[in-house]
Amino acid sequence: MAHVGRAVGLPVAFAIFCVIAWEALCRFGHVSSELLPAPSAVWNVLAGNPGILMEQAVPTTIEVAVSFAVACAVGVLLAIGITFSAAIREAIYPNIVMFQVIPKIALAPLFIVWLGVGGKSIVTVGVFIAFFPMVVSTATGLVGAKPDVLQLCRSLTASEWQCFVLVRFPYAMPHIFAGMKVGVTMAMIGVIVGEFITAQAGLGYIIMFASSAGETATVLAAIVVLCGIGLVLYGLVALGELAVRRWYGGELPTSGVI
Amino acid sequence: MTVETAQSRALDLVPFGAAQFPSLRQLRPVLLPVATAGTVLLLWQAVCLVFRIPHVILPAPTEIAGELWRILPTLLKEAIPTTLDSVASFCLASGLGVGLAIVLTYSPLLRDTLYPNLVAFQLVPKVALAPLFVVWLGITSESRIAFSTFASFFPVVISAAVGFEGADASTLRLCRSLTATDWQSFRLVRFPFALPAIFSGMKIAMTMSVIGVIIGEFISAKAGLGFYILYASSRMETAAIFAALFVLCMIGAALYGAVALAERHVRRHYGRR
């Protein structure tokens, strides 16, 4: 019990201490509020006009959710293709791994040229960035199913489909969720960068606009909301993993944090 | 599977030059992806020519190659700040990350206090802080390096801390019972054990630091490839965007390759295990 208290209490105490130190620094250190507003000032923005921030949070959240969902669906489908066709695997997989390495975020302006300013190009940036970790992770999981188990299934005349549903897919679950955890943070990054460079709405736009106007408290308030959205989405994925693991009888290993 | 290996063995055993030239089957893992990439390029070229797609929307690969050749001096000039900033922030992130991971390994108090906060930071979209770094440090190169270091620091700490923690407990006990000092058991056991984890963190950090620098250049710079890409896109010079992207990808792949090579070198130094 004391161990649990320490594991939760210490980090929370440290976070609170940092916020208090920050507040004290701003109050007594005469730091200009444009450079670093005190936490209380950020709170005033958050509590003062929550309507504006929440309104801007809606498009951002929807864009992140859509791009994450599309990236998951396309990623898992392509990974299934990679698992079942040696030709697809050998032809495409090295190219996908290559794409993992290059800075894909640089393609964001290209999507604006193609799809114009607005939600469509922002979602595309998010999908494009979240998609690659999904494919690589899922494919690793599907290919890595235990050969003994697969051989046993085949000798018991299980169909390919049965092998897939009953062995490969459950076995790949931790990898799929590991990919989804990376994917959800990546989709978030893609959407924010998209909003930095194109949007007329959304939290990324608010951050850019407020920072150019010197309203740093608003920037920080928007970042707080973004962090909240990020943690909630990540938490949903983690909850999904928990539910799926329970469904499969809790015999699956965990995917770990990122 | 076994039949296939048997066949490939049989192919290898064929006389007349089989020993000198790798068989087609052995080259397949290299040939197929290259052929796929080549086919995509050809299709792209064909689609552009046949459907007369406007240059602004999608220039043909040959046009991009021409543009690349034409603006190569400019691109190389713009590539210098981007590369330097990326390397600087990667080095800072790796140094600080491994350093903090060592501190976390040897101080349970600090580990319990900081580690959960580090993991939480790993989950939040740190990219959103980019404009703040502009407010704090201006539109200088230092501001981009600071932001990029901040973005790529967390994966290194977490991987390295996990690696140090995962060193074989019985080996550590053996060291202690042979009266090895903390420093010796760190240098000879923990560090070699943690190397794969450290390098996997560093590989993520390398890509993240390039991404960080590009984002920084998107929002603040007057030079660099990120700036050039945004500038070209505002002028609808799509071929120039692609040319700049090509150079950027080469830089990204080269930097990643350098880390992968370093990993191979270091691991060889510590033996196969």
Summed up, what is this model?
The complex is a heterodimer of chains A (258) and B (273). With 258 residues, chain A is mainly α.
Tell me what you see in this structure.
The complex is a heterodimer of chains A (258) and B (273). Chain A is mainly alpha-helical and 258 residues long. Helix content of chain A is 82%, strand content 0%. Chain A has 10 helices and no strands. The longest helix of chain A is centred in the C-terminal third of the chain and has 39 residues. Chain B has 2 domains: 50 residues; 209 residues, MetI-like fold (Orthogonal Bundle). Chain B has 10 helices and no strands. The longest helix of chain B is centred in the first third of the chain and has 46 residues. The two termini of chain B are 29 Å apart. Chains A and B meet through helix 1, helix 4, helix 5, helix 8 and helix 9 of A and helix 2, helix 4, helix 5, helix 8 and helix 9 of B.
Question: Please, what is the oligomeric state?
Answer: heterodimer
The major β-sheet of chain A equals:
none
Name of the CATH first level of the largest domain in chain A: Mainly Alpha
CATH class value of the largest domain in chain B: Mainly Alpha
Count of helices of chain B?
10
Total number of beta strands of chain A: 0
Shape of chain A: globular
How many domains would you count in the coordinates of chain A? Answer: 2
- Tertiary shape of chain B: globular
| CATH topology-level fold name of the largest domain in chain B | MetI-like fold
| Number of self-contained structural domains of chain B | 2
